[in-house]
Each structure stands twice: as C-alpha cells, then as structure tokens.
Amino acid sequence: MKRAKKIGAARARTRWGARRAAPVVAAVLAAFAGPAVTGVAQAAPGPEVFSWGAGDAGQLGSGGTGDRWSPGPVMGLHRGEVRKISAGGTGSGESFAVAQLENGTVRAWGHGSSGQLGTGSRNDRGTPDSVNGLRDVSDVAAGGAHALAISKGRVWAWGDNGDGQLGNNRTGDDSTVPVRVPSVFMARQVAAGCDFSLALMEDGTVWSWGSGARGQLGTGDRNSHSVPQEVRGLKHIAEIAAGCHHGVARTEDGAVWTWGDNLTGQLGDGTGKGSSDEPVKARWLRDIRKITAGADHSFAIRNDDTVYGWGENRDGQLLEADQSDDTGVSRTNRNTPVAIDALEGARDLAAGRGHDLAILDDKVVAWGANTEGQLGDGTARARFAPVTAARGDFHHVAASLAGNTSYAY
C-alpha cells in the first residue's frame, strides 16, 4: 500500500467513440459577413447558459438527448450564477459537464455511468443536478470520466478510478460521490485529462496522479500513481491545463512547459518524440497570459493578444491557410506553436477534440469538425475559418475534452 505524502498499473480506458453521419439540417437563421469571421450568426438573447452539438447522453442540459445544430439554453442555469463550466468525456455518447456556481456549489449533467456526475448514482442526467456534499468550491475540472473540485484548498474527486485518477490511494473503485484526495492541501487550480489529474498548489508547484502510461504525470517515469506526485522541475507556475494525455503549465513570467503524449506535436517542443515523461519547454512562447488544452492540441494567448496553437490539426483546429489541399487549409500537425491571426484579440478560448471555440468582441465563434452540430452554425459542414455560433454578452466558452459539445456563458 502506498503511503500518501502530505504536500503544500496503468489501465487505458479511453474510448473515442465513432463519428456519426449528420442528418440534413434546416435553413440557416441569418447571414453574417466580416473580415475574419464567416458563416451564420445565431441569435442568443437572454441570460441563459447556452449549449449545442452532441446531446446523446444529456450533456446539452436541455432535458432531452437530441443533438442541437444551433445554441439553446441549459435548463436551470443562468449566466450570472455560473462561475465556470468544464466539459469532459471520451466520446460523444460519454460526454458530461460540471458547473461551479457563484454560491460555491457544483452541478453536473450528461453521461454518468462511472459516477462522474457525483450525484450518488450512475444514471445519465439531462439537466443539471447537484453534486453531493460540495460547498465553498473555488475551481472544478472535468476529465475523461472523472471530475475534480477544490474546496478551501482541498481537492475532491469523483467518477472513474481505473488508473487511480481520484488520488485516494485506491485503484479500480469508482466513486459516485466526491472523495477527498487526502494528501493535497492548499490547491488553487485543478485540471483533468482523460485518465489523470493535476493540481496547482499555492506555492507554485504542480502535482499529478492517475495514469502515467504516456508520461502525462510528468514524474520522470511511466508508472501510474494513485496518490499525488510532484511534477518534475516545475516552479513558479501560474496556470495549468490538461489535454487527453498531456499536461500544460504556464509560469509566472509567461513561459509554457508541456509533458506527456506527443504523437501529434502536442508538446510544442519541435521534436518528433512520441512522448515525454517530464516537462519540456514549448518553443517560442513568451509573455503568455492564458493557456488551454484540447484532446491533442493546445492554445496560448500572449499579453499582446496574439494567439498561438500547436498539436493536432487534422480538422483544421489551428486555422492555418495554405494550399495543402483543395480547402486551402493546412491539415498538418504542428510540433511548434504557430500564430493564428484570425483569433487575435480573443477574450476566451476553449479547445475540444476536433473543434474549438473563442469569444471575439460580442460573438462566440467556432471552427473545425462539425459532425454533430458542435460549431452551432446550423449546418453539418466542417469549417476552416471561424463561424459565428452566438452573439451576446458572453464571457466564457467550454468544449468537451474529447467529444462534440459546446457551451457559452
């Protein structure tokens, strides 16, 4: 039995889910034209939280299980009461979301077979339901089939524990209610990947637990750990993010470090190395103020509002224009960060599996794969330039980690 260390085995469960052919969609609501954004604009008045895309597990929060091709409200949630939404899942039929509310409680909805909704059952939920027992929550994160929360500096976890990602010194015992990660104190941010967990501490160090099969724990080995371990060499960290099998960290002075899976260039270090079990520095990034990670790609925003992207690009996630194919868009994965002119000035970014979201001025824009309406433009067409999904007073966006669902709030 491992002894938990107080701080300031791998079993792959990832299931990507088959992409389904989309049905014919009705006419577009309204046309929009602009120099950087193309496509259609969907009206989104009112104070609701909006969702669109795949809904087959109830992850839209609409009360049903149908897909949405344009934004619609999440039942029972209003923008003014939501501080953060994090969306997880390892396939469209397995997606779920957790919402941190301003009053310190947490709600969850969508797929629940591993207990990832934290409601005490394994049932799917089509509308937001309260996560058991959580109060004074300051951050949340949704992973492949597990979720995390911070309450008064302590980390709580629930859902799938097949690789020890709940951090409670056990492996294989899922939990339908939050359990405390006993060795973590003074946490200020959490991030969750498909099968691992990260916590950023008040002292600027990062700790990890769960599967280490692809180096995603950053501990210098590929062992899985059911209790937190310190990520090697990271100090003065200001922000963390987790992809499906890779981690990202931003330092206080604006540098970016990455570790884990690198098969599609998601480490951004310019190498063809398949993975790294300790942090490496992403090339050319400085003065970074925000990071976000999707399944196999990542974004960073610099202080001057320049947006950089790297990693998987098969669905046009990185918005590079060239003559690589008949779309005029590069589909080449990038192992070093590239500047994305079309996203300059973005106020928020969210990265999913094959699609991404941003807030530009008063618009929520989306691009990439669109098999289940996840771009919100009323069509099933993939888009290689941003299209407008919604207009309104939105401040944040979220995309399913490895699914096809989108949120704006």
CATH fold call: Methylamine Dehydrogenase, Chain H
| Shape type | globular
Regions with little confidence, pLDDT below 50 for 5+ residues: 1-6, 8-41
**What's the N-to-C terminus distance?**
44 Å
The strand count comes to 28
- Just name the CATH architecture: 7 Propeller
Strand order within the widest beta sheet: 2-1-28-27
User: What multimeric state do the chains show?
Assistant: single chain
- The succession of helices and strands, N to C, reads EEEEEEEEEEEEEEEEEEEEEEEEEEEE
Average pLDDT, all residues:
90
Signal peptide: 1-43
Protein name: Alpha-tubulin suppressor
Domain RCC1-like: 48-405
Region (Disordered): 108-131
What does this 3D model show about the protein?
This protein is an all-beta fold and 409 residues long. It has one domain (48-408): Regulator of chromosome condensation 1/beta-lactamase-inhibitor protein II (Methylamine Dehydrogenase, Chain H). Helices cover 0% and strands 41% of the residues. It has strands at residues 48-53, 68-78, 82-88, 96-101, 106-110, 125-130, 137-142, 146-151, 154-159, 175-180, 187-192, 196-201, 206-210, 225-230, 237-242, 246-251, 256-261, 275-281, 288-293, 297-302, 307-311, 334-339, 348-351, 355-360, 363-368, 383-391, 397-399, 405-408. The strands form seven sheets. It has a four-stranded antiparallel β-sheet with strand order 2-1-28-27, with no helix packed on it. A four-stranded antiparallel β-sheet has the order 3-4-5-6, with no helix packed on it. A hairpin with a 4-residue loop joins strand 4 (96-101) and strand 5. The protein starts with 47 loop residues before the first strand and ends with a strand. Residues 1-6 and 8-41 have low confidence and may be disordered.
